[in-house]
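Q: I have 179 residues here and want to know how they pack in 3D. Can you give me a structure?
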Amino acid sequence: MALRSDWSQRTCAMARGLDILGDPWSMLVLREVFFGNGRFDAMKNRLMVADSVLTKRLAGLVDAGLLERKPYDDGGRTRQEYVLTDKGEDALPVLNAVVIWAEKHLPAPSDQAHMFVIHSTCGQRTSSADSCTACGERLTADNTSWHSLARTPEPVRLATAAPHDSASQNSASQNGPAA
């Protein structure tokens, strides 16, 4: 999944992390899965991305262990959706940091083009990627919402890692609109 070369064996931890998380499409795919939008067609429509690009990024994130495929029945046949793993859920502070940095330093092209990190437990917006600046609690996918004004009028609770019990097929798609 490297941008230009394989950085997975570098001695620098940042280089190894960027080998997986340094691609913009991969980060946007993770954003969609955190929003509960893990089905291929819904991601494709939301991201406005070519099938080949999305397929490659999804395969790379699965190979890297950040996502896994889970079957679902679309009414006619069994298909696959992508859900977070524990490793994928651990990437949340990185995505939060990008959102917070962009809101602080980059102009939004419209009033609707804002996204905020909300600590669901206390309901406050935070300016820290890993802990709530209002109450100090550590941010996790289970206690964090994102509020994308272009997406929904209210904050959306984030999807969490897929249950390890195969009998539990709780779909992450319940955590926000598909497209």
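Q: Anything worth noting?
A: The longest strand covers residues 67-73. The two ends are 25 Å apart (CA to CA).
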